[in-house]
């Protein structure tokens, strides 16, 4: 294991599992030993995804007939390992660390802080969105919201990327913000407008935001009886203007490369643009001017 730690070997994963199986056969001391010295034997990813996960599994507890003291000793070593791995390789180990530390409040808080510290420089938007969704699933909507906003700042979705894999995550983040309330929605909108330039995605977000009141369903399922948000005021005004602007820019861009076989698709795109223009109080006039300029 030490000889192949820094080199690629197709049998390593198999051998990691085999070593953990051997340590399980030997007993608690051997399992604790390989976790204490994980950095000499395993990569951070191997240590969290295979070693610690196996040690904390119910099958290991049952197989070794562990008492409560022994279970806690192994669990403590596994959590320490997970946090060390998350510090060393947050991109690949942060989510595993959070999962392994769920039952220990201090360790879980530490893992979450590691994610926040790494979010600005060491993690991609897809990794942050994955952890944000995990946080929502665990019942931490405000933490999910915080991570989602950080993820959006890493994102750059251009005008022609209407099938980008991050679109569903952006829609989810906006829906989460909308469910939390007007303040959260107002805070995330400038980030969305800055990172997303695709007109169809922006119009989709806009329509979803106008269907229900922000914070309509509270954290405990209580419904708030508020008014729908106005498109003439922040934060939706900024989103509406950005969406109209995106349709204008995209239309001009498409016209420079248009051919007869794209005509029907272009007309369909213009009809979608018109629907968005008409959401503004002077939308009919704006759309007429837009068509005249074309």
Automatic annotation (TrEMBL):
Question: Under the GO molecular function aspect, what terms does this record hold?
Answer: zinc ion binding
> One Pfam family from the UniProt entry?
ZSWIM4-8_C
Zinc-finger listed as a keyword: yes
Note whether Zinc occurs among the keywords. yes
Q: Which GO terms describe its cellular component?
A: Cul2-RING ubiquitin ligase complex
Q: Keyword set for this entry?
A: Metal-binding, Zinc, Zinc-finger
Report the InterPro entries cross-referenced here.
ZSWIM4-8_C
Please list the residue ranges annotated as the ZSWIM4-8 C-terminal domain: 127-294
Q: Which domain of life is it from?
A: Eukaryota
PANTHER family the UniProt entry points to: ZINC FINGER SWIM DOMAIN CONTAINING PROTEIN 4, 5, 6, ZINC FINGER SWIM DOMAIN-CONTAINING PROTEIN 6
This protein is called what?
A: ZSWM6 protein
Question: Which taxonomic lineage is given here?
Answer: Eukaryota, Metazoa, Chordata, Craniata, Vertebrata
């Amino acid at each position: 294991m030490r000889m192949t730690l820094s080199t690629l070997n197709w049998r390593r994963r198999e051998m990691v599992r085999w070593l953990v199986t051997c340590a399980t056969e030997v007993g608690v001391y051997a399992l604790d030993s390989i976790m204490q010295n994980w950095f000499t034997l395993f990569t951070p990813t191997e240590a969290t995804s295979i070693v610690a996960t196996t040690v904390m599994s119910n099958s290991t507890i049952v197989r070794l007939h562990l008492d409560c003291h022994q279970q806690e000793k192994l669990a403590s070593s596994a959590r320490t390992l997970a946090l060390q791995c998350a510090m060393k390789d947050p991109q690949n180990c942060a989510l595993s660390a959070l999962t392994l530390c769920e039952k220990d409040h201090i360790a879980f808080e530490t893992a979450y802080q590691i994610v926040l510290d790494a979010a600005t420089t060491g993690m991609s938007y897809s990794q942050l969105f994955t952890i944000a969704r995990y946080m929502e699933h665990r019942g931490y909507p405000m933490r999910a919201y915080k991570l989602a906003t950080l993820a959006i700042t890493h994102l750059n979705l251009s005008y022609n990327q209407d099938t980008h894999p991050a679109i569903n995550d952006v829609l989810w983040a906006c829906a989460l913000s909308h469910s939390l309330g007007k303040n959260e929605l107002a805070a995330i909108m400038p980030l969305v407008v800055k990172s997303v330039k695709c007109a169809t995605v922006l119009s989709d977000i806009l329509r979803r935001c106008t269907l229900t009141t922000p914070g309509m369903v509270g954290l405990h399922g209580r419904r708030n009886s508020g008014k729908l948000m106005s498109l003439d005021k922040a934060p939706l005004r900024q989103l509406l203007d950005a969406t109209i602007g995106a349709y204008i820019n995209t239309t001009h861009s498409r016209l420079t490369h248009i051919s007869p076989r794209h005509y029907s698709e272009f007309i369909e795109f213009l009809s979608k643009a018109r629907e968005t223009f008409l959401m503004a109080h002077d939308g009919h006039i704006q759309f007429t001017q837009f068509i005249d300029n074309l």
